[in-house]
Amino acid sequence: MKVSDFFGRKVLDKKANEIGKVVDMVIEPKEGIITSMILSTSDFGLTRKDVEIETSDIDEVGDYVLLNIGQEDLDERVESAKKAEKRRLDIKK
Known about the structure:
Helix content is 16%, strand content 37%. It has 1 helix and 6 strands. A 6-stranded mixed sheet has the order 4-3-2-1-6-5.
């Protein structure tokens, strides 16, 4: 399966609820291994939320990408990512 086959593929959680679709991947170039996938939870640019999932979160790949985690787990990741982004670093010379 080519990496380009994943782009736009719908992603379902463990309860078969549609979460979003694959928009990007993080690949380890030397080994040629996919380390994580970036999911878009909406199609609109202004309200678009991207979520990163690890390959360990993927249960099966077919017509859909099936995850072994639920929607609530992804929501927690989004919240924790927002908190991490809000950290401010003060750099003194």
